[in-house]
Request: fold
Amino acid sequence: MAQLFSNYIDGEWVNGGAVFENRNPANTEELIGKFVKGTAADVGNAAQSAAAALPGWSAMSGPARGAILYKAADLLDKNFEQISAEMTREEGKTLPEAKGEVRRSINIFRYFAGEGARMPGMLVPSERDRVHMFALRKPIGVVGLITPWNFPSAIPAWKLAPALICGNTVVLKPASAAPLSAWRIVEALAQAGIPKGVVNFVAGPGGELGEALLNAAPLRAVSFTGSCAIGTRLHEQASRRRLRIQLEMGGKNPTIVLADADFSSAVENVVNAAFFSTGQKCTATSRAIVEDAIYDRFVEAVVERTKKLKVGDGMQPGIEIGPCVDQAQMNTVLRYIEIGSKECGEPLCGGRRLTDGALANGWFVEPTVFAGVGEQHTIAREEIFGPVLAIMRARDFQDALCIANAIPFGLSSSIQTTNLSRAFEYIYRAEAGLLTVNLPSAGVEYQLPFGGTKESSFGPKEQGPAALEFYSDYKTVYLKY
Ligand code: NAP
Reply:
């Protein structure tokens, strides 16, 4: 019998009502578990319990809150292998990738647990005699967190940990396609002794629960990661109530490859960034913009490398590319491949759903490379979120930079070059929130700010010290002695 995973409201695991299934995208015959399908009423109760818990939690000292976060991190660490395997089974990414993500979640909890003992405010000299002036941080209140399926543990972690350490209380609504990884974090927090009502977890349909969350009277802020379409809608709703809002959304990330690049690392970095995690990273490379002088040789090398990628069930050793997360996502990818084939010609490799043998029960698509893609083509402009790479030709560095920037998105961007001067010019002129030089466009760490620019993002950055800016407010004090 599949395990039933309950919602967590006011310190209680809450059952009852309808359920929904969590299935393995590599083998849909495998039922991982059933989740209680939360309702608008559950979200309302969760927000009320978060409001009731706020005075106690925010009055607790930062180090005391940090101690609970450290304990939750230790509990996740204790169950590291199991939690990683569950992530592979619910989301499809390979086991090494899942382990990397769970490790990151643990590190995020420890990093922000430490912030409890710092919580930097400001202390500056006054212009006036015998006046002491400073600003201290205070929590903003009840915060709603809405997360996507592609980093089902790290994204909940990088929202929950800073929200909690700042003294806020939260309602977390995870993605329906992969709720178990987030559930494990909430379980760890509960076992670590977080007071009742401080953390609430309600899984279920985004439309109904999102609406209820944004209308919940106690809510003061919402942090969302997901698609631009939903983010834009949430922004409109939040503005009506003047909720503080943070949005991290889609991208169409470029990697510029210059003729002076270390050729084999450039090939490896582009293939890694385009296809690992099945291209389902918000920072994945979906456009390789290649300088004319090495274009043909680069296309040939990328195609050759791509054809060697091993696609299959991410639990098996040696597999590099797992399935799309669900049928809808696979159909989206196949639709874009069809559009790409019509507009730019057949792909040089890949392009089909894979159904041989055991793959028949999963949502597998071959890693696909299109070449000769122009700026006007759909697959160069719209986010696909799957294993599809568009290779574009650029006359030179300046042309490549123009192509890279000429899109509405600005999440991540990469350049492959050994020319220091061009690397710096790129750093100053590339329109993206995350830049990499001679690395894949994907693969970030938690110690620095994370987030995009242009239509990819809105509001203060996540992670690193910047995360405190969203989850806290300053209280400024002038004191005459
Ligand atoms: P999504 O469809 O926008 O869903 C994200 C979350 O919003 C899910 O929890 C979803 O719930 C919920 N939701 C759906 N409709 C809602 C509504 N009307 N009101 C409130 N919440 C609602 O995105 P996704 O398919 O999960 O994730 C893929 C997208 O996320 C891509 O565009 C990717 O680029 C982006 N992403 C961005 C970043 C970043 O940091 N910039 C990181 C990762 C992913 P259900 O699951 O129940 O529908």
In short: The chain has a mean pLDDT of 98. The CA atoms of residues 172 and 201 lie 5 Å apart. Residues 146-151, 173, 175-177, 205-207, 210, 225-227, 230, 233-234, 248-251, 282, 383, 385, 411, 452, 456 surround NAP (CB under 6 Å). The radius of gyration is 23 Å.
